[in-house]
């Protein structure tokens, strides 16, 4: 291993696959520290529903970016990128290797590759688009995007109103297609990334997710969500495991149905995670039951 070269080992994969456990073993092996790139585990009020590391796990290796923010804080992926790079620069003064773990693909990419740059856009454009969404519906905005930026229309998650509005506000505000800002030369990184992916058969992933949701409920997820009802309008809480139970507490859904929806939406989330992570052709994929020694051996081959 080149003594001047710094390495970031990024552990990725779908929810409930065992990323936390592997990252701790790797951090202990390389005598280093862990950065979390799980955007839901940043928030200290959301512990059970985000499957954040337990007190025992947190004590077994130094962690960064776990419960360091409140749901009332405005914390963007851009802020995380800046904070994470600063954290890595500090770690790399003492360690040659650092570990990053998380299921939020955009946040992982922000650290390993850098974010696409978008110019600032007048806030009023988004407000107008939100009003248009309410009065004329999503299809109207989709058609508008098709006229302004057909590339984005064909590539973004067109059923997601947030994505459509984001692409439109940039296209309108800059006079250039949203897609023209994507995949430009990103910030160079002073470290090399080795990405380790955990996966297994889809049925096993889904089974693990269902079991995890049951465990969360037994550990007190309902009380956690109940205490957060006054904040349910916040963006941080518009997420799987919380929004479904808000529907239970306001009387819209029965509890059994809400829990089954958490399982279903978590399975869908896992599917999207795998699609995102599979785009990186350099990822070293392992079955979640692979022996640690084999994973470390493969990493060491890449370090050298």
TrEMBL record:
Protein name per its UniProtKB record: tRNA dimethylallyltransferase
NCBIfam families for this protein: miaA
UniProt GO molecular function: ATP binding; tRNA dimethylallyltransferase activity
Subunit structure: Monomer.
Residues reported to bind substrate: 15-20
Cofactor entry: Mg(2+)
Enzyme Commission number(s) of this protein: 2.5.1.75
Chain intervals for the UniProt region annotation (Interaction with substrate tRNA): 38-41
The reaction(s) this protein catalyses: adenosine(37) in tRNA + dimethylallyl diphosphate = N(6)-dimethylallyladenosine(37) in tRNA + diphosphate
Keyword Nucleotide-binding: yes
Annotated site residue numbers, Interaction with substrate tRNA: 104, 126
Protein's GO biological process: tRNA modification
One Pfam family per UniProt: IPPT
Gene source species: Neotamlana sedimentorum
Record keywords: ATP-binding, Magnesium, Nucleotide-binding, Transferase, tRNA processing
UniProt keyword Magnesium present: yes
Function: Catalyzes the transfer of a dimethylallyl group onto the adenine at position 37 in tRNAs that read codons beginning with uridine, leading to the formation of N6-(dimethylallyl)adenosine (i(6)A).
Family per similarity comment: Belongs to the IPP transferase family.
Entry binding sites for ATP: 13-20
